[in-house]
């Protein structure tokens, strides 16, 4: 990519705040990563199906990885101190934080996107509201689910001492992790800048993160007042909604990169779409803790009839057109490999699963559905629980490992099939543009996983050599806002970009038989939540 700027020493930074770790990556004017650092943080499981993060620990992880990446770049001879022009943020979505405006302290831990504690609240809303589970779909594109932030806000109000009082007194602020980061990075509850001026944190969120709360109107890109009234959520605690590429604020004293503007922000899956440069009709899948598949539908809002969500793809500037997307989210992808390692001890490290799964030619008739905390798209069953069926006396660890990888890929296949049905594309001729699946995320380093995905889809899978696509998308948005790159330069592709193609080898008859057996296994997961006793 050729920069529109004259100086060679132009850099863009990206905070990539994920479910299990935070990282900071520095990119040069050609969008090549020159330095990075990653810090993991604690996962808290206070009850079955619950998952929390300490918001202060997340902040500290961002502080450490930013400082370490800057040190690495400087040690390698890059003038990042004078040349870093802006930073972008990519973040785990739906994870909810409420904090005190006056003290800056969280009023409770962050409730993570995959947490299912709000199931009773969801059932109550479905029974109370006229449209049931789909009551808010017309306005926000989302079904009522434990997944989204709104029900987490309601749980915090109902169950955490001091939250309701803080809201009523005007001292409470809500945000997804992007808002929490930006508010703290830009001054929080108060600090002084280099000129000794008193500054306070900027309370904003971008339209992609806002689209995951169940509270934003997809057409107006603003908070939907009727929805807020129905749910009893005060608009006063909500951040201002902005685009994905504009100046949001300046990093305050006390942080690495003090004085550098924050000019890009997207939820991680939307950032990945931009990182892949997905235009209308193109699909990407990110394999992390969960898996997230998005299809860019251009400027058209497509309502799903097959269990998908309608969401924002990206909006690259306050006056730019809005690109929308269909999304299918899978709760458990890479997390199931961690489970094999940490809970069962079948593998000692995540990268061992590829060799173990490759030790057998097939699963031996084993099917593993990792519905640990319910199933997301296209099933939307929070009463589902994991099942492993087809076990015989000859089943071994290799079969379990291979069935685990297939279980991830079958879920992605189900979502992409639903996307084609929603867009009215069924045959190979109709799916000309989006036949390629663009992939990213930590799990994609597993070549066998990618080959299984291509086999089950019957379509090519394309993986960039640099898997940190979400961070790259955040960097694109940030650089676009300050003129380092133009939109045309971003979407025309990077110079020297390297990819690896995985082509399908499985014949159609085998594929269909395996898919039929998989769907039988999925049916076995339903109505099992009551067994948790």
Tell me what you see in this structure:
The protein has 533 residues and is of the alpha+beta class. It has a domain at 333-412 and 435-460 and 502-531: ATPase, nucleotide binding domain (Nucleotidyltransferase, domain 5, 2-Layer Sandwich), CATH 3.30.420. It is 33% helix and 22% strand. The protein is built from 17 helices and 25 strands. Strands 19-20-18-17-23-24-25 form a seven-stranded mixed sheet. Strands 3-2-1-5-16-15 form a six-stranded mixed sheet, with helices on both faces. Strands 4-7 form a two-stranded antiparallel ribbon. A hairpin with a 5-residue loop joins strand 2 (21-27) and strand 3. Helix 10 crosses helix 15 and helix 11 runs antiparallel to helix 13 (397-422). 52% of the residues are buried. The model is unreliable at 2-7 and 426-432 (pLDDT under 50).
Characteristics:
533 residues, alpha+beta, Nucleotidyltransferase, domain 5, 7-stranded mixed β-sheet, 6-stranded mixed β-sheet, 17 helices, 33% helix, 22% strand, disordered N terminus
Brief description of this entry?
By secondary structure, this protein is α+β, with helices and mostly antiparallel strands.
């Amino acid at each position: 990519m050729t920069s529109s700027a004259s100086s060679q020493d132009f850099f863009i930074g990206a905070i990539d705040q994920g479910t299990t770790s935070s990282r900071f990556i520095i990119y040069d004017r050609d969008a090549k990563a020159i330095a990075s650092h990653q810090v993991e943080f604690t996962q808290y499981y206070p009850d079955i199906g619950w998952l929390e993060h300490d918001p202060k620990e997340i902040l500290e992880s961002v502080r450490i990885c930013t400082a370490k990446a800057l040190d690495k770049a400087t040690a390698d001879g890059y003038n990042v101190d004078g040349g870093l022009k802006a930073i972008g943020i990519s973040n785990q979505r739906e994870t909810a934080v409420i904090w005190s405006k006056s003290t800056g302290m969280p009023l409770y831990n962050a409730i993570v996107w995959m947490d299912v504690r709000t199931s009773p609240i969801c059932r109550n809303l479905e029974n109370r509201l006229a449209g049931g589970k789909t009551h808010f779909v017309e306005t926000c594109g989302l079904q009522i689910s434990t997944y989204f932030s709104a029900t987490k806000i309601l749980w915090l109000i109902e169950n955490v001492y001091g939250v309701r009082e803080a809201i009523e007194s005007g001292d409470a602020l809500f945000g997804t992790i992007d808002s929490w980061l930006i508010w703290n990075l830009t001054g929080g509850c108060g600090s002084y800048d280099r000129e000794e001026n008193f500054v306070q944190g900027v309370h904003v969120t971008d339209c992609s993160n806002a689209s995951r709360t169940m509270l934003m109107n997809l057409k107006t890109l603003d908070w939907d007042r009727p929805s807020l009234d129905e749910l009893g959520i005060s608009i006063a605690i909500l951040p201002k909604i902005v685009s994905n590429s504009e100046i949001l604020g300046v990093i305050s004293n006390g942080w690495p990169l003090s004085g550098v503007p924050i000019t890009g922000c997207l939820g991680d899956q939307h950032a990945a779409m931009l990182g892949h440069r997905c235009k209308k009709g193109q699909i990407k899948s990110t394999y992390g803790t969960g898996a997230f598949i998005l299809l860019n539908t251009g400027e058209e809002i497509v309502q799903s009839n097959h269990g998908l969500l309608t969401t924002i793809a990206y909006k690259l500037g306050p006056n730019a057109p809005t690109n929308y997307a269909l999304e299918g989210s899978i709760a458990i992808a890479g997390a199931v490999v961690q489970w094999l390692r940490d809970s069962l001890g079948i593998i000692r490290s995540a990268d061992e699963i590829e060799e173990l799964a490759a030790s057998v030619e097939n699963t031996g008739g084993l099917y593993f559905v990792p519905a640990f905390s319910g199933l997301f798209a296209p099933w939307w069953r929070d009463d589902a629980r994991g099942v492993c069926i087809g076990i015989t006396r000859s089943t071994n660890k290799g079969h379990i490992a291979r069935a685990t990888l297939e279980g991830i890929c079958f879920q992605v296949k189900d979502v992409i099939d639903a996307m084609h049905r929603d867009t009215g594309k069924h045959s190979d001729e109709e799916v000309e543009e989006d036949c390629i699946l663009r992939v990213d995320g930590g799990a994609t380093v597993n070549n066998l996983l990618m080959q299984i995905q291509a086999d089950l889809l019957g379509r090519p899978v394309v993986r960039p050599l640099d898997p940190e696509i979400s961070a790259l998308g955040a960097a694109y948005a940030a650089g676009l806002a300050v003129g380092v790159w133009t939109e045309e330069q971003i979407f025309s592709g990077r110079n020297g970009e390297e990819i690896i193609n995985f082509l399908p080898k499985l014949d159609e008859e085998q594929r269909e038989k395996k898919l039929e057996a998989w769907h039988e296994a999925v049916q076995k997961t339903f109505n099992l939540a009551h067994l948790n006793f």
